[in-house]
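Example 4.3 (complexes with small molecules)
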Amino acid sequence: MVLDSANIVLIGFMGSGKSSVAKNLGKRYSQSQNPPQKLSQKTLRKDTTQRFTRFVLDSDEMISKNLGMSISQYFKRRGEEAFRLREAEFIAWVCSSVKNAIISTGGGMPIFNDVKQMGFVVYLEIGFDEILSRLDSIQRTKRPLFRDLKKAKEIFLYRKDIYKNTADLVIDASKPLESITQEILNHHL
Ligand code: S3P
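Answer. The structure with shikimate-3-phosphate bound is encoded below.
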């Protein structure tokens, strides 16, 4: 079990559903009438507001807003290395200023930076074929590292153990959204 104020950090490959899970978790935390199953009414009465207020942050979205351009444009103009530095700055900012958040990270963040310092790390584990079936060609083109399928698969195979070794909790992300959300809530009261 984890302290209330620790951030929940979602990691996983592109297309594993981090953003959707983050949004859904955020909804559940804001619905005090629909609390995580393990919470008793007694605990709820003690600490309703703090426990159920968690805001959602998306690292790519924030970085992109700060840069004033899409991640894809930034990759093209400055390259991947520069992008990884922007991710490191995002992590430093979270560590110094953010509590009680649900953080959806870019797929490469745990490979190039230490995400554990941001909070409780949840890996959304999913097979490459399932990812392919989820991302249409438009969604793939938006991701600079997913334009070449063969390369994307190589990156996936290289990364999957790193994700697993970084995580405090591994979740089968091929399950329905609600059951993934509930599983995280069950571990993270
Ligand atoms: C990347 C994943 C992307 C984005 C960037 C690099 C990666 O985020 O950060 O294109 O290295 O896997 P999503 O995982 O949200 O697609």
